[in-house]
Amino acid sequence: MRSLLIYLKDYKKETILAPLFKMLEASFELFVPLVMAAVIDVGIAGRDKPYIVKMCLVLIALGIIGLVCSITAQYFSAKAAAGFGTGVRHALFKHIQSFTFTEMDTVGSSTLITRMTSDINQAQSGVNLVLRLFLRSPFIVFGAMVMAFTVDVKAALIFVVVIPLLSVIVFGIMLITMPLYRKVQSNLDSVLLTTRENLAGARVIRAFNKEPDERKRFERENQALTDAQKFVGRISGLMNPLTYIIVNGGIIALIYAGALRVQAGDLTQGEVVALINYMSQILVELVKLANLIITVTKAVACGNRIENVLKITPEMENGKKQCDPVRSSGGEGSCPAVEFSHVSLTYKDAAAESLTDLTFRVERGQTVGIIGGTGSGKSSLVNLIPRFYDATAGQVKVFGEEIKEYDVESLRSRIGVVLQKAVLFKGTIEENLRWGNENATEEELEEALKISQAKEFVDTKPGGMGFRIEQGGRNLSGGQKQRLTIARALVRRPDILILDDSASALDFATDAALRSAIRGMGDELTVFIVSQRAASIQYADLILVLEDGKIAGTGTHAELLDTCPAYQEIYYSQFPKEVASNG
User: Fold this and answer.
1) Phi, psi at residue 24, to the nearest 5°?
2) Which end of the chain lies in a sparser environment, N or C, as judged by fewer CB atoms within 10 Å?
3) Max CA separation in the chain (angstroms)
């Protein structure tokens, strides 16, 4: 939590003025019992009404000044806390954006969402309360004790006993509850993960009639969170009754000792009332301090969790070279578009390799088809090209340079990627397309829509490219979403285009028209097509057949049909031998 305090550096004035004004308010509050003692001992005892009125006006003045100081302190503390929360949120979001897929897979999106929302809000509330109360409450507690000594030393000795006992209770409970609150936040992560999975997979859950099972799972996670909160709540709940018992015990002792000293003539009735008021002030402030410590304990636990995310260092080191295909071409055939040399990939914490010893070379302008069974490593292979993951062994080169030498942003600006899952964002079709190139002209957008075969349905939508897409593209079909994601990649005018099973929802005619349009984009465009359909890749210049993360065969469609059993099995499962031979 301590390292997060750097985000208060722009609010130094507020962090000083907020507690300062609170202490001013507390100072005026400490004078109130003395004024009341004077009213009782002088005004009421002497039946001096003008003096009582004068003292009442003094009380009103103290109240107004205290109110002004309190409002001013609230303003400064709120400004500092809101600025702190904004700074942490921006820093955390920026840091998360630097994560590779490896870190995202390891930490988990539900955990990161909790850090960005609930944890930062808790930390912000903690900063707000600390600035307002952390100095005020101890100041009043010890100030009340000092003022009690100015009234009567012997009676004030009761305060010397009461305050340490209260401190032991308050700080003891704080030390016990701090690790428990961390457990509560961890259980909250589990509930959020379960909720997110249920919402994301609502259709699948209903399709398999798993609502009762998921309900039980949610109830189990929620019950664990509830039990943890109730347990820590019971311990925290001990604070108020224990503090009330001790303070009220102190008040009883004060009244008893005060009565004896009043009877002996050593104390006045007003001074006894003042001492009781000081004890009551201590009670109120310690209750506030107890609640503050509970909130601060939560805030520190949340701050530490945020800190842990900020401490995660992305494993991928950024290179310095700019990716320039034109500059890197040194003659025909001398510099391939993509080259894999004995490349292997093992995901973090995985038991086995996902890709093993891949070696191949792709020339510029070639179309490469990648096919294989489910889990054979097709997506893993193409994810290495834009450097979503780093190879654990071997070298991946793009335009003659190892990709680790390139600046990641420069590398990816030359590559258009269409992932398996079509993801669109809330906004117009045009806004989504401009993710590929925000400076694209209307003509370039239209061309991308034509090539991706999306123009035919975009023109039928109200407003055309101004048609608003709902979150996640809920108001579009699967095929429409896929075509728009392909168009978004084409708007970039990439040198390498990766289609990762991105036409699975398209019919065969649309798929064929799409591939034909992409081939017509130019001889310099290198295309990788990942597909389960043999028809989608059979006209590729080079086909890679993957099996259990290894290359089972390379070559053209005709060559593989003669020499590669794995390709034959896939092809003939989709096209019966009679039809294939007639074709």
Assistant:
1) -65, -45
2) C
3) 122
Q: Is the dihedral of CA 158, 160, 164, 166 positive or negative?
A: positive
Burial class of residue 327 (count of CB atoms within 10 Å of its CB; 0-12, 13-18, 19+): exposed
End-to-end CA distance of the chain: 68
DSSP 409-463: HHHHHTEEEE-SS----SEEHHHHHTTT-TT--HHHHHHHHHHTT-HHHHTTSTT
Nearest in space to 551 (alpha carbons), one of 363, 384, 342: 342
Please give the sequence-ordered ranges of beta strands (E in DSSP) within 438-580, or none if there are none.
468-469, 496-500, 526-530, 542-547, 550-555
Question: pLDDT tens for residues 357-393?
Answer: 999 999 988 999 999 888 888 989 999 999 988 899 9
Identify the structural domains of the chain with CATH numbers, from first to last: 80-310 (1.20.1560.10)
> Residue-wise over 4-13: b if at least 16 C-beta within 10 A, else e?
beebbeebee
* Of 272, 246, 274, the residue nearest 259 (C-alpha): 272
Pair 392, 346: CB distance under 8 Å: yes
518-566 pLDDT per residue, tens: 888 877 789 999 988 888 888 899 999 999 999 999 999 999 998 899 9
CA distance 409 to 411: 5
Q: Where are the alpha helices (DSSP H) in 98-210?
A: 101-107, 109-114, 120-129, 136-151, 153-200, 202-207
Q: pTM of this prediction?
A: 0.72
Closest CA to 85 of 400, 299, 308: 299
Measured between alpha carbons, how far is 404 from 317 in angstroms, rounded to an integer?
Answer: 8
